[in-house]
């Protein structure tokens, strides 16, 4: 388990900060924490996501090797994310699908793409102990 | 605050998985969770880091726009990280330094680079409420 | 998530402190913490509610723009509140009803009115992450 | 103590939603959660604050009987709030001051006013058990 | 809610300390913490129970006005206690029964008696918020 | 450690319920939860205290064998209780004193008496692990 | 309950450290924390397991008197362990079986053996309070 | 971090169960949970220790490769253990000493021996993150 007070910190490029706010806050339900000329910071599922204004964004969204997201311990939280994606018509890159099926580390997964082609993956392991 | 059961998930490229294990486990003190032919997974400060075997790694370590790490709520935890870096002679990219000095969001920061030039940043805000 | 030790603080007018105690403690099940000549303080679902003796109370209870209450993370806690309202025949201003139906932020809501026409709203979001 | 999953819910009027975002997010460090034509919602120190667009705002900021805020259990958290107020030059209505001095319920307090003259009070009791 | 680190402290008379150990540890499943010539201390459901050697014990077990026990938040924990009482044939003074039936504070209750006629009550409220 | 959701339950006699409210709420800082003709219930430091109207009260307050109270894990919480006792001039039966001095179970203690001669003891062990 | 920050520490012999890593990490899903010439340390279900390189290992795996493991509070966590054992074909020494059947301390149990014949037992009590 | 509800489980031999109770409860301050003809179970710092009656005990206490104990996250908890050892004159096998001095995994350690020559080690790492 992790503690409640530290925050994981993730920084990714964004070609347009308004787009980033639109996607992360009004799409994914993250919360806008701070905004500067060159970056915007979010409370992303309890962790800190920073979108840095940059032209260095991928031409298309590619699953590997770079992505980030959340591994939910509870199946219902993954279900809620799926409903949010559907309600808000977020751009799905892959899934929902079952991975490592029939093994101890079996988990559900869905991958989204933000407007700058950063990939966000949400997962739910049958056995949360194996989510690492 | 975030909850204790979910895990933040971060995936980055690694040109060599043994090197990744050496750096993250025996260097940074992350814990090796699983290893496959094409990836290795770590318990990285309570969250899930996955290094995917890939040639798509940066030629040099560059701070922006992509990096990840931990924002420590307690000053002592940042100090402990600094001591670890020193004891184990980890490769420092920048800092330790004070950022946003004299503002409410003032924080200490240090950036490291892993063997595949992924950048890892550790931070400690004077006011942990502003770490988002 | 919020932490367990701080308390949210809400102050509202009450035209009669005995009435306020009757409503909040023996009605809503809040707990009486302190009482002074000009105010009474309650442990209101874990937060601090203060009723200040004042003639400046609304002539009738109006839902918007001022109200306060609790957003329950668990559906059962909202159900329990509904049963309490029914058992103790508390004055219902609106609901129970479903709001933002068919969206990610769908939630159940009920609004009560205290004897000084302060409005208290209780809610339960399908996705507690969106309760902010 | 309160639990970590429920949220206290506070709704107040705002004559201008942009002003509200400016004050609460870029001033007080609350986080923007959602925005609609007629309201904006914030993660305010872990609880839900909603500003409803309304002309029904006070002509001037008056301390009693209506206000809301946070009672910090830790003295350092109150100190951090004071530093934030100073760094960001937020509009102070009263204090910082010591109230109920020399009694068991002695506490420090500071009151701010938002652009719509809603009053926000922050407190720190010497004995957090008496913060109710 | 209460915190996890403090302990509630209850002291009662016992005419025989061996009997007390037999009842509380091998009967109720409390844990023996310390023993002196004139007292024995238990970890009683997470709180501290002390049995003081004394002749001042009631001639018979009487429910009111003095007793102590546990109010379980979860129905299953009350069920488990009932099974323990049955399996270990503990001496039941009253119940299990439903009290305040049809009100918001409805709860299940069972009362046991220890060898020195101290009364122990276990309860489970439909609405744990009303267990105070 | 104990969990946060269950409550320890203590029932004692009170010859006068108003006196009990005066002492426990306005004296000790407990919170009034419910009141009936024959009893009053308190949130007493997070646990449930019930005062049952009864003539069966001790003629004088005697420390042993019956009392109840709180064992604080943190020294500051015990200090705060001492200050409350002083500020509010509560009736002290014994102490503050050091007990089991020079042993592993050394602790500070103070005993108060309520208007019905029930004895309340507050303690603070040097080693909170030994508070059982 | 135990606290979240301390770790239980268990040290056992291993005739081969690679084998130990293979079994504990890639079998049981423990996490590799550190490795030295003469020992390897694991995060074993949140506690610290150290395998010391040693020839002093049992010739065969024997259940009593020496073993270690985890007592799961939740039935689902025990079920997950059973599935892991099956999926990964871990060496089962005994069980799964029901012990102390028909008593308050009834629990499910399964015992595994590591490559150095250390015995690991996993349990799940019907009443987690009795897991001590 | 580990969770609060599961328990680590450790089983060791004891040549005499009364001796084991004397050492673990009245010496180390563990709590006696249950006792059978052939075993006694303890709440050992929040985890479950079982002493099985057995003649298979070491002739002398030897530090490696088998021992168990606690790694304290807080320095004060280690200090408290040292004071307990001194006050109660427990049998010290080695230390207190500093191990891995001048490295990131530096920690204090002390080893005790129980009456059956089982070795118990207590530790405190400068950086609790490295206690695994």
Shape of chain A: globular
CATH architecture of chain A: Roll
Largest interface: C-D, 47 and 47 residues
Assign the CATH superfamily of chain A.
Answer: 2,3-Dihydroxybiphenyl 1,2-Dioxygenase, domain 1
User: How big is the Rg of chain A?
Assistant: 15 Å
Pfam families (chains A, B, C, D, E, F, G, H): Glyoxalase
Domain VOC (chains A, B, C, D, E, F, G, H): 6-125
Protein name (chains A, B, C, D, E, F, G, H): VOC domain-containing protein
InterPro entries (chains A, B, C, D, E, F, G, H): Glyas_Bleomycin-R_OHBP_Dase, Glyas_Fos-R_dOase_dom, VOC_core
In short:
Chains A, B, C, D, E, F, G, H: Residues 6-125 form the VOC domain. Chain A has 132 residues and is of the alpha/beta class.
Structural account:
- Eight copies of one chain form a homooctamer.
- Chain A has 132 residues and is α/β, with parallel strands linked by helices.
- Chain A has a single domain, classed as 2,3-Dihydroxybiphenyl 1,2-Dioxygenase, domain 1, CATH 3.10.180.10.
- In chain A, 18% of the residues lie in helices and 41% in strands.
- The first copy, chain A, is built from two helices and eight strands; from the N terminus they run βαββββαβββ.
- The first copy, chain A, has helices at residues 17-27, 75-87, and strands spanning 7-14, 31-35, 39-44, 47-53, 67-72, 92-99, 107-113, 119-125.
- In chain A, strands 1-4-3-2 form a four-stranded mixed β-sheet, with helices on one face.
- The longest helix of chain A has 13 residues, at 75-87.
- Chain A starts with 6 loop residues before the first strand and ends in a 7-residue tail after the last strand.
- At the E-F interface, strand 1, strand 2, strand 3, strand 4 and strand 5 of E face strand 1, strand 2, strand 3, strand 4 and strand 5 of F.
């Amino acid at each position: 388990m992790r503690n409640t007070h530290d925050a994981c910190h993730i920084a990714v490029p964004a070609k347009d900060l308004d787009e980033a706010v639109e996607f992360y806050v009004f799409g994914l339900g993250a919360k806008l924490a701070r905004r500067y000329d060159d970056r915007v910071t979010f409370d992303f599922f309890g962790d800190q996501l920073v979108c840095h204004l940059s032209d260095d964004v991928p031409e298309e969204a590619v699953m590997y090797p770079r992505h980030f997201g959340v591994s939910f311990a509870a199946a219902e939280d993954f279900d809620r994310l799926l409903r949010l994606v559907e309600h808000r018509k977020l751009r799905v890159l892959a899934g929902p699908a079952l991975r490592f099926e029939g093994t101890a580390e079996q988990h559900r997964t869905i991958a989204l793409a933000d407007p700058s082609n950063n990939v966000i993956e949400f997962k739910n392991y049958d056995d949360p102990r194996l989510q690492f």
